[in-house]
Design brief:
The protein has 474 residues and is of the alpha/beta class. The protein contains 17 helices and 22 strands. The radius of gyration is 24 Å and the shape is globular.
Length: 474
């Protein structure tokens, strides 16, 4: 695959000489969405900014690559309702959003495959309040299903209560009609004929043995996910274009010397040799927490901060693609989306463009991704095709191309999507990770309480922290 995003300038020895003795208002570490959004905000407010990126490209965990003339999104690509900052960028960049392919959803549950059009028949997306209501309902239902499965004595003692109609429980536990409708529609698709008059106990038993609700809602289209036609890198390029030559590639930040009034950011080249240092009044680190911990800080960060970071692990995701000459599943009235209760890949999407090959995308996640990461790409291809065949049939084995991207193996990412905090860590100290230390500030999708882990969270975090820095600088 060939990189599609436009690279920014590298720093040559002669170019670097321009910065010796210069004191920037802010050095931004990382040219992902958070870093670029912050730099645009600061430069737009008249501050002298430079962005340092270790990779030879911009975008961070957003990356679009070209394969035989087809653009493949190997990184983040989804925009949801309520992601206002991302929608503003889409409008400003003049690009189009496209939604999931229309057609039936296939669901594999307990050995059977069901065909469903689970997405509710509504023209509007859920409001943030309805989304929150739906999320709380899913959480209650999942916890209840797990208790029924793990505590047979409790289930037996509450048999009468578990015998109530599912519809009654839904109305009692979800407050908004739209959330109730979505919840009931997707549950009905889990097994043939499940409806509101089915007992709560049967619904709990069926779903705990089948697909997870979050994946099911995602692939059903109920969350109204959208992606950028032509690739998310267009939004990255749009931000970078506002920064002219302020983005420097191939600058690996290794150490930050800091005090209350300023910082010195030390860098090295890819071959490990020192490439210089940058002085600034402030530094904004937009690396994810597990990478930010790898930098050397002088003086060291507060001990509690390192303890919090040591007690969380990055997620592990391998994003995989199967490319066919045409999206043949559409001829069968299928959306290309599926959710399964077993197999190496359990969720897929059709991400084909309007013209070109048919592309089915899925994920190896968690323990499955960790295991597959140690295996060959050929083994991963076979595992993906087997997962597809169990749902779509043997037609998936027709001639195809296979691609994947292991984000945990990317040395400048080392994990995706978001970190997993040990029990109690985030609620006690996690949100304090965004608090500055002397002249060091932090931003990124993992540092926000709202839209955490999403591109929206990265953009908002970068912009908000840039405003904090601007106020401090005066």
């Amino acid at each position: 695959m060939r990189q599609a995003a436009k690279p920014g300038p590298r720093v040559s020895a002669s170019n670097l000489a321009r910065y010796i003795g210069r004191v920037f208002d802010c050095v931004v570490v990382g040219a992902g969405f958070a870093g670029l959004a912050a730099a645009v905000e600061l430069s737009g407010r008249g501050k002298d900014v430079v962005v340092l990126e270790a990779r030879d490209r911009i975008g961070g965990r957003v990356a679009t690559y070209e394969h035989e003339g087809t653009m493949i999104e190997v990184g983040g690509q989804w925009i949801s309702p309520g992601h206002d900052s991302m929608h503003e960028l889409v409008e400003a960049a003049g690009v189009e959003l496209i939604g999931p392919q229309e057609g039936a959803l296939l669901i594999r549950s307990q050995g059977g495959v069901y065909r469903s059009s689970a997405a509710p028949d509504r023209s509007h997306a859920l409001t943030p309040f309805e989304m929150a209501d739906l999320g709380q309902g899913m959480l209650r239902f999942r916890r209840l299903a797990q208790r029924v499965e793990s505590d047979r004595s409790w289930a037996a003692a509450n048999a009468s209560w578990l015998g109530q109609p599912l519809g009654r429980w839904v109305k009692a536990n979800l407050r908004t009609p739209a959330a109730q409708q979505d919840f009931s529609a997707v549950l009905a698709s889990v097994s043939d004929g499940m409806a509101g008059d089915v007992s709560l106990g049967r619904a709990l038993t069926t779903t705990v043995q089948g697909t997870d609700l979050e994946s099911l809602f995602a692939v059903s289209g109920g969350l109204k996910l959208r992606r950028v036609m032509g690739g998310m890198h267009q939004l990255v390029d749009h931000l970078a274009a506002k920064l002219d030559d302020r983005v420097k590639l191939g600058q690996i930040v290794t150490r930050i010397d800091h005090g209350p009034d300023g910082v010195t950011v030390c860098t090295e080249a890819a071959d490990g040799t020192s490439s210089g240092s940058y002085r600034a009044r402030r530094v904004l680190v937009t690396l994810p927490p597990w990478l930010a911990l790898r930098l050397e800080y002088n003086p060291p960060l507060p001990s509690w901060r390192e303890e919090v970071l040591h007690r969380n692990t990055a997620g592990h995701v391998i994003k995989a693609f199967v490319l066919y000459p045409t999206p043949w599943w559409r001829e069968q009235g299928l959306s290309g989306q599926m959710s399964a209760d077993e197999g190496s890949v359990r969720v897929t999407f059709d991400i084909s463009e309007q013209s070109g090959p048919g592309i089915m995308m899925g994920f190896f996640e968690g323990a499955e991704a960790a295991s597959m990461s140690k295996r060959s790409r050929t083994i991963r291809e076979l595992a993906f095709i087997d997962s597809l065949a169990a749902v779509f049939g043997e037609e998936v084995r027709q001639p195809h191309d296979y691609l994947d991207y292991d984000w945990a193996a990317d040395k400048y990412t080392r994990g995706c999507h978001t970190p997993h905090f040990a029990p109690g860590v985030w609620s006690v100290n996690g949100q304090l990770l965004a608090e500055p230390v002397d002249a060091i500030h932090f931003a990124g999708s993992e540092y926000v309480g709202k839209n955490n882990g999403y591109l929206e969270g990265a953009v908002r975090s970068g912009r908000e922290e840039a405003k904090v820095i601007w106020r401090e600088l005066g």
